[in-house]
Amino acid sequence: MKSIAACLIFILLGLAMTMDAFADMPPMVRTKNERKFKFGDITIVQSFNSMRDPMSPEFKVQVYDKKRLLLQLSDAAFDSFYPSPNGEAFVGLSNAGWPGTAAIIFDRRGRVLLLVEHGLAEFDYCSQTSTFIKEWYDGKDPQVKFPIFDTRKTPIPGITLKDCHGQTVDLLDTISKASANARITLRHEINIRYGDREK
Predict the structure, then answer these.
(1) Which DSSP category does 118 fall into?
(2) Which residues sit opposite 121 in a β-bridge?
(3) What is the mean pLDDT of residues 123-135?
(4) Number of domains observed in the structure of the chain
(5) Domain for residue 62, yes or no?
(6) What angle do CA 119, 124, 126 make, to 5 degrees?
(7) Lower CB count within 10 Å: N or C terminus of the chain?
(8) Residue 3: its pLDDT value, please?
């Protein structure tokens, strides 16, 4: 009787794990959509297109100053964007593992100051799955704040936000720690993906 109960538990656990695996797979739906974030003259257009291949959709982020394209990124997506008080810089954050971008800082000229990806940075996640969920900051109320200008303070103040544990943290310090904890470094990724295999 005990062995039958143990067998049933084992089967149920296997089914639950299989269902989690299916839940963490991309939907096989062909679709496209677009989201716009407007900050004065700056418009950020984020698009998703799986019409050609649902397993390998196109993710794009485009930044415009009125109608002039300042920046375009492929394989990037963010949950939300936050402008600096003077509108000269923007922070993008994502709790999603697909396509894998976690954070970006760029300025209104289109210059990328920082781009961080899950995998190359291992954050202190509150919740995560192998593909879609990588929850590292409070997505409902991130409280992103740019520092008050003061170079006399030590250390120099930085951008802060609320992490998924409810703590106010420095964004750059958090990213630095996450990068140090990563299972794979950028050096490894470049070697694996782009290294010369000719001998």
Answers:
(1) B
(2) 118
(3) 92
(4) 1
(5) yes
(6) 105
(7) C
(8) 53
148 in any annotated domain: yes
Residue 127 belongs to what domain range?
32-181
Considering the domain boundaries, does residue 91 fall inside one?
yes
Partners of 62 in the beta sheet? 45, 72
Tokens standing for residue 103: 């954070």
* Residues 6+ positions from 99 with CB-CB distance below 8 Å: 59, 75, 76, 77
For the record, the structure tokens of 13 come out as: 């656990």
Report residue 108 as tokens: 């209104």
* Nearest partner of 140 among 66, 80, 89, judged by Cα: 80
For residues 171-195, give the mean pLDDT: 90
SS3 128: strand
5 belongs to a structural domain: no
pTM for this predicted structure: 0.82
Q: Is the pLDDT of residue 21 over 80?
A: no
